[in-house]
Each structure stands twice: as structure tokens, then as C-alpha cells.
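Single-chain item
Fold in C-alpha cell form
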Amino acid sequence: MIIRQLNLAIDDNYCFFGNSIFWPMNLIDTHTHLYVEQFDEDQDEVVQSALKQGIERFYIPSIDSAYTQRMHNLRSAYPEQVYLMAGLHPGSVDENYEAELEHVKYRLETETPCAVGEIGIDLYWEQKYQDQQVDAFRQQIRWAKAYKLPIVIHCRAAFDEVFAVLEQENDDQLYGIFHCFTGNSDQAKRAIDLGFYLGIGGVVTFKNAGLDKVIRNVDPQHIVLETDAPYLAPAPKRGKRNESAYLTYIARKLADIWGLPMEEVANITTKNALSVFNHG
């Protein structure tokens, strides 16, 4: 391949796929946990690597009160790129969940979060606190509507339960993202019909996941990109710690699925992300 009349050096700022080269384009990671312990040793390097790859913004979901200070520290380090959510992750719901909800409420009253998330229902490991998860999910949805914020949904082994709550709470104030969407075509349509974008991450690159077949029939106007770093690294990084820089692999996979130029995928999904977080 011959590159003509370029006075720029090719370095880590450029991305290669096969024999092609492209310059960093604007991408947004709508879901990344850059504040957790897995990044303690090299957080700044990880963020800088992502910025070099063209990931210009990072939307940061909450887990519970134990991580709030870490989230604020990250925001202080990157005030122009980092946007924080407030919420109680369903995996952190237990007998003390009401105290955690008070912390979420306090953050909504005293901060300016970009969304309420991540919230939802997770029945993958156990169902002991299912009723509490449902109650926490419902309460946080109502707060999101009161503050005119999107919600970011965590749904694992609980599509029926999540949809039941959403349909009960549905009105013109309810919108957001189905984070780490891995459902079937009917579930995708159901989520979109309720006004949600589908957050697509590394699972779409997994050979036997089947998500690529679902997404092939979804209009890109309903998709946002995410990594869920440090979890669910895309192929060819699967099994390693995920990073926001790997968002480019997800964008490339979607471009292949839809038969679109990667620049178009980047433009559409970035526009979608800015819109859902009221930054568009």
C-alpha cells in the first residue's frame, strides 16, 4: 500500500485492520468502569490509549457507594472526557439496599449525573434478593424520570422481569440504554419499541454468541457502543482485561455486519450516544 503526500508519521495514533489504515475517528464508550481496582496500576495509560484511538468520551456507570469517590477522582482527572452516572447496580442489592438508594438519591440531588445507572435486575447467580432488586429498579426509574435523565439497564437472566417493570413504568419520560444487550430479535424489538438504544459491546465479536445475527437486522440508529471495561473484552482480546481503547474492534465488527464504512458506524453511534445523554 502506498501512501502519497503525507507528512505525518505513522505511530500508535493509527489503527490497522488487515491491509487498511484509518485515522482515529470520534467514538464514545457509553459504558466503562475505568475507576475499578483492575485499573489502579495504569489508569492514566489506559485512558490515554483510548484517547489516541479516537474514543473522545467515557460514560461511567455506578456500582454502589463504595465506588463513588473513585468515580469522582476519575472525573477530576479527566473533566472534559468523563461523565458520571448515579445508580445502584442490582448485584449490590441486599438487605441494606434502602441505605444505598438514599446515597443514589443524595447524588441526584447534589450532583449533575448524566444518567441513572447502571440499574436493573440480575438473576444469574441467585434470586435471593429478587424482590429488592425489582423495588430498587422501579424506584430509580422514577427518580430518572423526575430528573429527566436516561436510565442505563443491567439485565442478566432477567429479560421478562425487566420488561415487566419497564412496561409498568412506561411513559414519554422513560428512555435510555439496554447495556450489554445480548437478547434475541424479539427482545431487541421490544426494547427499541420502549424507546431504548441497545448497548453493544464485546459479545458481538464472540464467534458462537449469535448476537451478530440479531444486530444484522437492527437499524444502526438504535445502537450505541460500549466496552464494559474491564469485562467482556472483544475478540481478539477475549479473556484479557478489557479497555476502552478496544471499542474500535466493536465498531469494526458492526461495520462488517452491516456492510458499512467504519466512519459511518462511528458517526451514527456517536450521534446516538450524544442524543441519549442529552449532549447532542
User: Anything to note?
Assistant: Residues 1-23 have pLDDT under 50 and may be disordered. The two ends are 38 Å apart (CA to CA). Residues 181 and 211 are 9 Å apart (CA to CA). Residues 26-276 form a domain with the TIM Barrel fold (CATH 3.20.20.140).
